[in-house]
Specification:
204 residues
């Protein structure tokens, strides 16, 4: 079984992935942030490094999905390949930070990969307001994220909402993280677990 957690930067994907993996005994697959050789450069010079970064993520995510498929295990994944193609790359292109040539190249590569990719059995979307995202980003203190603007986060949020409204690849669970503190409040985490149980029981 393949569960995936989607959401904007700072929505709590990695934290929730870890908590759910521990509870359900699922194997977690995290986004490659620590070893990503482009992230720091990208946040300092977006136009120069946007294409390189998106290709790195696409490659990393595609490799992850191949591993998930071959493993035969119950796996929870932190962020999906769809977010790269439907949110991050189009946003960079729309902001003038990725050229038409690079964006078209990226899109054709994703479309080719998508033919080999199965959607997750359950997609968990973490919906968050901009103030909450900003608070979370500041609290975790990653140096390369200090330059992320509110305008950039807002554009991403708009694209996330549009994508989720049209998502039809499988089961979808939307969690409003502004109203839940699943890190410090066990009852809030329990509420999320109950909702996932209700969805997952129909998957077997």
């Amino acid at each position: 079984m393949h569960i995936a957690v989607a959401g904007n930067i700072g929505a709590g994907k990695t934290t929730l992935t870890g908590l759910l993996a521990k509870h359900f005994k699922w194997e977690p697959h995290y986004e490659d942030v620590v070893d990503n050789p482009y992230l720091d450069d990208f946040y300092h010079q977006m136009e120069r490094w946007s294409f390189n970064l998106q290709i790195y993520f696409l490659n990393s995510r595609f490799s992850q999905i191949m591993q998930i498929r071959e493993s035969g295990k119950n796996i929870i994944q932190d962020r999906t390949i769809y977010e790269d193609s439907h949110i991050f790359a189009p946003n960079l292109h729309a902001m003038g930070l990725m050229t038409n040539r690079d964006f078209n190249n990226y899109k054709s590569l994703f479309e080719l990969m998508e033919k080999f990719v199965g959607a997750p059995d359950l997609l968990i979307y973490l919906r968050s307001s901009i103030p909450n995202l900003v608070k979370q980003i500041h609290s975790r203190g990653r140096d390369y994220e200090n330059s992320i603007s509110i305008d950039y986060l807002s554009r991403l949020n708009e694209r996330y909402e549009a994508w989720i409204q049209s998502y039809d690849k499988g089961k979808l669970l939307i969690i409003d993280v502004d109203k839940l503190d699943f890190v410090n409040n066990p009852e809030d985490l329990g509420q999320i677990i109950n909702r996932i149980n209700a969805e997952v029981n129909g998957l077997f």
